[in-house]
Amino acid sequence: MEVNGILTYDGCNFLRQRLVLSMLTGKPVRIRNIRAKDAQPGLREYEVSLIRLLDCVSNGSHIEVNISGTSVLFKPGVLLGGILEHSCPNQRGIGYFLEPLFMLAPFCKNPLDITLKGVTNNKIDPSVDMIRYSLMPVMKKFLVTDEGLSLKMTRRGLPPGGGGVVQFTCPVRRTLRAFQWEDSGKVQRIRGVVFTSRVAPTVANRILEAAKGEFLNFLTDVYFTIDNAKGSSPGYGLCAAAETNKGSHLSAEAMSNARGEETPENKLPEDVGREAAWRLLEEVYRGGCVDSTSQPLVLLFMVLAPTDVSKIVLGPLTPYSMHFLRHLRDFFQTKFKIDEHQESSLVGEDEEEEEEEGPRTGASKLKLTCVGSGYTNISKGQV
Amino acid sequence: MADVEDFDKKKSHSQRHSGRKAQKKEAKNKHVQDLTAQQRNPKAFAFQSVVKAQRRFVRTQDIKSKKHHIPVVDRTPVEPPPVVVAVVGGPKVGKTTLLRCLIKNYTNQRLSDIQGPVTIVVGKKRRLTFIEVNNDVNCMIDIAKVADIVLMIIDATFGIEMEVFEFLEICRAHGSPRVMGILNHLDMLRDNKSLRKKKKALKHRFQVELYPGAKLFYFSGLIREEYLKNEIKNLGRFISVMKFRPLTWRTSHPYVIVDRYEDITNPERIREEPKCDRDVVLYGYVRGIPFQQSQAVHIPGCGDFKIKDMSFLPDPCPLPEHLKKRSLNAKERLTYAPMSGVGGVMYDKDAVYIDLGGSHHPNKVKSQVKESDDEEEGVLQPLLDLQKTTNEKQAQSRIQLFSHSKFIANETKYANEEMDTVEITDRTSSEGLPLFETVTDNTGRVRRRALFNDNLENNVDELESDDDDEDGETSEEGEEEDIEEEEEETSDEEEEEEVNDIIPPKKKFKNDSGVESDSEDYDLDSDLLDIQQQNLALKVDSEVKEPAAARKIMPLSKNKDSDIAQKIQGILEKINTSQQNTKMPSTTNKCKILEDDDDEDDDDDEEEENKDKGLSNGGKSSSSVVQDKGEESEGTDSSTSDEDEDEKGKEEYRMEMFKQATSNFYKNQSTVSFLRKYIYGEIKEEEENRLEEEEEDFGGLFQRTSKVRKPGELYSVHAVMDDTDTSRYIPPVLQEWGDSEVRVTVMDCFVTGDWKDRDAQTLLKMDDEDNLYGDFEDLENGSKFSAQTDQKQQEEENKEGKDEVQEPKKEKSAKEKLLEKKRRLKEMFDSEYDDKGSDHFDNLKAEMSQQAQLNRAEFEGLDDQLRVQYEGFRPGLYVRMEFSNFPCEFITNFDASYPVIVGGLLENETNMGFIRVRIKVHRWYPKILKNRDPLILSLGWRRFQSPIYYAKREDNFRLRSLKYARKYLHVEAMLWGPVTQVNTGFVALQNITDRVPEFRIAANGVVLETDKSSKIVKKLKFIGTPEKILKKTAFIKDMFNSETEVAKFVGAKVQTQSGIRGIIKKFKGRNGLYRATFEDMIKMSDVVVLKTWVPLELAKHCFPVRSLLLPSNEKAAWQGMRTVAQIKKDKGIKALPNPDSFYTDITSRREYIPLPLRVPKDLQKSLPYHLKPKVTPKAQKEQRVVVVKNPEEVQMDTFMKRLKVMMEDRIEKEERDKVKKKQKFQKDIAEREHMRLVREKRKKAAICKYKGKKSGSKSVV
């Protein structure tokens, strides 16, 4: 919705999407009624921190927050990048802050090199492991070379204590290339990391056993690394990723309850392992060239491509991506063409046969097509 | 004479070409092809030297690779927009005549008065737009940005004019179009020789300016006010075959050259206030890249705008269709030039134009649009709205409860007068957004609601059953309030209903437009049938008439009348929608089929369903269907009882419905149409409704908010607004992957599963089937399959492996297989031995062409209306752009000779920032460019004036401020202006006024970077003096004024003039005194200097040149800000020189006397021997012995002295005599010599006389 030429939204949900798109397009955005009816109205600490981070990454951003914190006006500046450090509040994971950075980093003036401190794994946000498994390959694909692109976790930090340290570096690009990605391939190996912190080391093995058992029904090439970390808070979990022969990565994760978390029952390590495995299978069931976590990133990069046709095949869209699509329309006026994806081999065949056999490749896929907006990195300069 | 010659002429011999004689002759001297030198003597042409050969090869390769350009994706559309041909030249060189001649050449028509762009179809695939460019710089700049071909007319009698150079310079900065020079007025030069000379000189100059080999045309003169026909024809041919290289700016920005405009402001408004902002419509072809709906645009000379509405029109000047012949006939040679008044006035008969039809008649304008887009309502609406009263608007407003159902009239609203005033503007945004209506309530909030045609039909089949409900309608006004709330729920419901019949349709919703007692359920459909049956007579006409009547009645009658009116209107609305509904029953069926499929699916599907449900309900089972029914009935019951209960029931019901809707939503993801709708249309409005609902709650019911905010509920009412913002998608209920049946569903996703092209298997199966069922015919291939298949072949097929493309194996297939095999072998061979693909350049090129092909093919088959949604208004479309709040001067001061260009801006480009540029003063510009003086820049689409700050990039990358831009050198500069892409070129002018003697282009350059802060620094020296000195510490005063100032510089390096370095330690006291330490003791007489760099503050001033808005006499005289020099000149201010800067004689300069070097003793000791100062004892001067003379000796001495004097005198005398003697002697000699000469002369004369006499006598003889 546009009010006085400023895109205006209500509510705090999708704050990151809105701010990121605003930064990329240079369009100011106003967000009103942030938890207006809540007992604690206004922005939360982590949201403020996010805004601070974006301000840090950019030059000349203008931010207005009203007294109660229920309304934010964000006028973006020029994306700057550079060597930065940011400590994230423990309510949200580092993933919350990393995702917008993934979207912004290629379009900065200088290559981004940021050190983030906080919670690396939690239950709300995609963990740093997951981001590495799922977003990094996508990023690599778009930046063509992975020179200067890295995501390092120097220390793991679990909630509620946090204390993790993650370093993310990313090179800059002036333009991206349009691309077509219609074949997700078949899962050929499964990799993952089992992490524990301040618990008995056998826990890791128990998780591993449970998860591996699930995967071995499909595949033998399953390999998990174990990371027994020392941290401030106890916890354990598993992040697994499936790699296909066409280079797409699907990832999923599960972890134990945090200390002090109110949940009906405590999870056994086996449960965690199985849950992660099942979630990954679910992800495989959903399928597509990228997993549900990287859907927004891919969609964004498709829009930012030159004015050529880009295509991708995705599994069912997550609500987050759906809203992202909508926001993309608001900011870039780019509309995606959404079609059902029919696998080429199935096209010629008779219907009866399909019915007989039933689809064994999971959920039906979507093919998203769009014409890029011809975006160029406006902040990257010349000497 | 001639007669004689004729007579003399003999009959010449004619050779035989055929016949016997000829044959004979041919046989006699048969032609033998000579061997070439190389053939005769191949050895001579063999490699003489390997090195040379190699060099030659390298050279050719170099030349070849130099010709390579970076391949770009060819984005020219199938039907490209007309090519822009600009005619440029000084005044009175014959631009108009040329234009007229060219048009005549192409169309055989003579346009008398050409104004604005003229578009012509010139060939099967080419259209041209001609624009004449006047001599205003503004105009030239704008045209240079859009022209594809420039015809540059040069007056041969005059030579090349400044305008031409200026124009070329502008072109160079913005990406050069093709330039063709035309030398005119050649007939004025009488002399043939001077003509040739002139031609040559001008051609040379022209090629220097452009590129060697640039084409120059010569026009030899006028015949009847026109150029020679064949010269024009040649030029025309050149133009129509010319090719262009895409220019960066134009391939990254959309633009439109406006060839027609309309002022659609309400005339009443203009009457009231002539200077009010106007609503303007601009027309033109899209060029460059696709235009997006509501894109930000810049109109050079006018300002930034946002497109309010955009739609495409049928091409007014279309290319001929299916042309078989070579050339066009007269009918196909269309002309389109609305500004010249061509449309409908002069060439009515033989061409098709868009009829202007009175430019100020909005309906007419609109009706054209309407033709193009099929939507019946909508387009006309916003305009009609202008003339309606609020009541009418209210009456007109409609609400759609279910997206598939009809509209409910809004009568219910004004029954309660305090309710929102709702005005609805139905409009089709032709861009591709779905049909939507805009509702404005009394708080002024605008809400939009998307309407979908494809959903409107859904419940047609349910109609029959529900018709009985209609009779019982009684309106309850109390309920009306809730309509809005319910809308969304109901819309949810209906979605669910449409896709899977959880709730039987009959039971579900019954209501009418604010009629039913059940507030919960509205069943529009019930009425529909009745209406259809009864009011068949009421058709389209009645639709138009009746509501108007109803509207009129409405405000007068409060209760009864209003009810009736409501009813009537409701009915009418229904008819309206029902008509739409009846159109497409097919899609509903489809939905059903889908559902059926779902039902038939096995457990896994069921589970999926569960999962989906779980999303909303947090694990609620699918048995909710029953519950729903129960609750529904509850709801209906409660409505009959008192209000509170009713409210409560509604509450629950609402929640339930919501859950269901959300759950179903996930199920429905598979149906793409739903997804499209969900993402791009409906939910937005749903969201807003929710918001609305919330607000309402705030007014009266607090408990709901709290209830909704249950922690477990993910997709509650607030879900969308204030939910946690996370991209992680966690399926709420996992499928039981331990179960083997579930596992099967993803079996093929793994490499261990079946591969995608499982032809082997399927073939096998097919064959089995064949055997079972005997012969069958493949309908796709048309090939027949017979039962007796060769078993062997099958096996072979299986062996062939997975990659094999499946093909029917039959007798004839053996041959095909062989072919296939050969082909594959060849491919393999090619890939192994041809290095075709290995070249990076070729690879890139192939990739680009592939992309280009995809770009063309992707949206090929789509309807234009839909296509525009996905890819925007592609180049080549003729579009209509509506703008509001246009300055009225645009209309009042419109001048067709100034081009109007709508340049699309990309994201970010509407913002302002500091632009760092590399700039070079033009070598022909006579003045110096001073720092901070304003320049008029043409950058991107824009022309603006901004003060510019020059700087020099130093070796350590510091940008040091400069006072003046250097001549002949690139310097960097910064200015405040619109953010522009890096590498965009620009030209800068100081003066755009007409008729200035000098070259107007001041500088040109390129954008290097954009930022939000400046980086230019300026050197600054702080000077202070010591107040007190304590050994190496000193207190310095007079440098700063306060301790805060000092605090900023703590740690900074200072220095005395003598070079003693120090560092600032800390402030002392409040007046800027500080303590500093030095490497040595300084003196009180020393001056302490602090050298720093201060960032320069740049003025954030940027003023667009609004040349289009100026009256025509001021257009070329705009100046804007003046330069400092100009101001000084105007005000008569003269700078007083600083007396210190005068050059004076240096009066007192102390001579420098170096002191002897003294080496301290200690140092001396430690020095090596050869450096030690050697202590050599000074040699004693020889002392002379004092001579004391006795008198005798004295006498002798004096005598000797006298003698000496005498002697000297004598010698002198002798010398003098000698000289005299010598002189005399020489004189003598000279005299004698003279005498001799005289004598000889005389003798000679005598001889000559004698000889003369002799010869004289001879000659006489």
UniProtKB/TrEMBL annotation, chain A:
Q: Which Pfam families match?
A: RTC, RTC_insert
Any Gene Ontology CC annotation: nucleolus
Q: Superkingdom of this entry's organism?
A: Eukaryota
A GO molecular function term, named singly, is:
RNA endonuclease activity
Keywords from the UniProt entry: Nucleus, Ribosome biogenesis
Supply the source organism for this entry: Petrolisthes manimaculis
Renumbered residue ranges of the record's region Disordered: 343-365
Q: Where is the RNA 3'-terminal phosphate cyclase domain?
A: 8-338
The compartments listed are:
Nucleus, Nucleolus
To which protein family does this belong?
Belongs to the RNA 3'-terminal cyclase family. Type 2 subfamily.
Keyword Cell division present in the record's keywords: the answer is no
Q: Where is the composition biased (Acidic residues)?
A: 348-357
Q: Where is the signal peptide?
A: none
Q: What positions does the domain RNA 3'-terminal phosphate cyclase insert occupy?
A: 183-284
Can the keyword Nucleus be found in this entry's annotation? yes
Q: What is this protein called?
A: RNA 3'-terminal phosphate cyclase-like protein
Query: Record's InterPro entries?
Result: RNA3'-term_phos_cycl_insert, RNA3'_phos_cyclase_dom, RNA3'_phos_cyclase_dom_sf, RNA3'_term_phos_cyc, RNA3'_term_phos_cyc_type_2, RNA3'_term_phos_cycl-like_CS, RNA3'P_cycl/enolpyr_Trfase_a/b, RPTC_insert
- GO terms of biological process kind: endonucleolytic cleavage of tricistronic rRNA transcript (SSU-rRNA, 5.8S rRNA, LSU-rRNA)
| Main location (coarse class) | nucleus
From TrEMBL, chain B:
In what residue span(s) does the Bms1-type G domain sit? Answer: 80-245
List the catalysed reactions: GTP + H2O = GDP + phosphate + H(+)
Q: Where is the composition biased (Polar residues)?
A: 575-590
Say which family it is in: Belongs to the TRAFAC class translation factor GTPase superfamily. Bms1-like GTPase family. BMS1 subfamily.
Task: Write one Gene Ontology MF term.
Answer: GTP binding
Full protein name: Bms1-type G domain-containing protein
The cross-references to Pfam families, in alphabetical order and at most eight, read:
AARP2CN, RIBIOP_C
**Where does it primarily localize?**
nucleus
